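Q: Hi! New to this. If I give you a protein sequence and the SMILES for adenosine-5'-triphosphate, can you show me the bound structure?
A: Yes, paste them in.
Q: Okay, here:
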Amino acid sequence: MKDKITKISLWLMVAMFLLAYPKLFGMYYVNLFVTFMVFAVFSLSFNMLLGFTGLLSFGHAIFFGISGYGTALALRHIEGIPLFPAIGLGVLAAVILAVVLCPVVVRVTGTAFAMVHLAFGQLMYVLALKLRNITGGEDGIGNFPIPNVSLFGLFSFPLKNNPVNFYYFALVILGICTWLMWFFTKTPFGQIQVGIRDNTKRIDYLGFKVPESKSVIYVTSAFFAGVAGSIYGLFHNLVSADGSLNVLVSFTAITATLIGGIGSFFGPIWGTAIFQILEELTIRFTEQVELVTGIIMIIVIMYAPRGFTGFLATLKLKWQLSRAKRRG
Amino acid sequence: MYILETKDLNHDFSGLKVLFGVNLQVKHGERHAIIGPNGAGKTTLFNCITGTYKPSSGKVLFKGMDITGRTPHELTRMGIGRSFQITTIFMNLTVFQNVRLAVLSKRGIRFNLFRFVDKMKDITEETEEILRRVNLIEERDFPASALSYGKTRALEVALAFATDPELVLLDEFTAGMSRDETHAAVELVRKLTEGKTAVLIEHDMDVVFSLADRITVLHYGRIIASGTPEEVRSNQDVKDAYLGDLEV
Ligand SMILES: Nc1ncnc2c1ncn2[C@@H]1O[C@H](COP(=O)(O)OP(=O)(O)OP(=O)(O)O)[C@@H](O)[C@H]1O
Ligand SMILES: [Mg+2]
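A: Thanks. Here is the predicted structure of the protein with adenosine-5'-triphosphate bound:
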């Protein structure tokens, strides 16, 4: 009971902080936080595959990117389309792409899975650059109309050129996504998912269909990556190959997840935050941000292979042990 | 009528012939031991029966139905359970979570994304019931990787039984156990196989003679004898080929 109260008050404090955030910090940090939320959700969707199913993808950006392009194209070409259908179309594109890839990717694991995605990622990147009359080539698609947020005419507020509104909008959508992904891991199917990671053969011998189950996970992961990508495109009012399909986008999720810890649901969120703080700090001293993150990666892999959350868990265990010892 | 039969089963691994026309016959309700020296092809036979491999030729019949080449998950749903010589459990999940997965499968809960699994009372109760039966209730919340060797093997066996199969195939469930652990495991399997049919691959002759109703001897991919323990014990071919070495 006491635990529950502490938990609820903790969450209330977090909620209040997030609500007050735009008032407390300047515009620069509001935008920074939106970026953080987008990449946190993207990394969470990536960790559905890596941490929870044991599948490492080198091209998760394909879902992020295609959804961004989908939303941008819908807003550019479909006259008067409201906001949510436009986001929905982008996400639908990501889901369709995942469904198309499913038959191939659920039958490979390990290096093959990683490499197939690297290849698809490069293919999409090149396509986005070459199909100039659809994608705008190197310039991407920018300055497309962004409709107001409205729900059944109950309320309506503008997003375009309004970072604070956008902050709240992203907070709600990405918050819901985070909760849904967390819930996913707690369902019976979520158990099957970790079972696949731990021992695929036993899952098969318990009577579960492995490829079908993997397909569901894969498409769900693409869905959430798609939401993140669509929001990201709206946020910048621009989608481009380098911003959303580049292999570096995929690696952002990998780095954040590894730094945060693949073994925990919230690991990727921590990882994204740490990654961003590091970037903010290093950029003041040097342009070579990748160099610093690279070094951090090496340190993490060598000394804290379970990432930040794993490190915290070890600390907690040590503290409990020493407390137990003192008590005798 | 046989619950499990193989007809002229052959298997080879890209040229290496391992099974030569195996005709195994397992009766309803019996505990049937398969014995034979290392490399005889016992595990391969299990793999061909339970869908790990598709046999090169021949047939597998379950309750008279042709199940050759069916996949493991199909066979599990038809009522065949299996434990492995090499432990095949979920090492990073707790003992409870391991068995719960089997219970979920048995109840046909496969793509449920709408409920908290921890709040499904009936699933929890059934899982705990199984844990009590297999003496793992005290280790309920241990990660499987933290179990003693003997308990790991008990969990392996528990997973084979937890889907409540009609027919179970146990591949050396006592492998590597101490005397005490073996004794406990034998009693466990005796209890769990009640009312079921079991096929046991086993090296330990004490275990074989204490559990088996009938025995099949597999020697370099061929069945050289099959019958009651007395028949097999007195069979001259078996003595020459196998039991002689073990001084039984
Ligand atoms: N996947 C495989 N690929 C190639 N050869 C294999 C494979 N599996 C088994 N074999 C070979 O087939 C033969 C039979 O192996 P199997 O594992 O069936 O024997 P076993 O009777 O179970 O032996 P043990 O008592 O040691 O468990 C051995 O010679 C083995 O090397
Ligand atoms: Mg074997």
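A: The first strand of chain A starts at residue 141 and ends at 142. Let me know if you'd like me to explain how to read the tokens.
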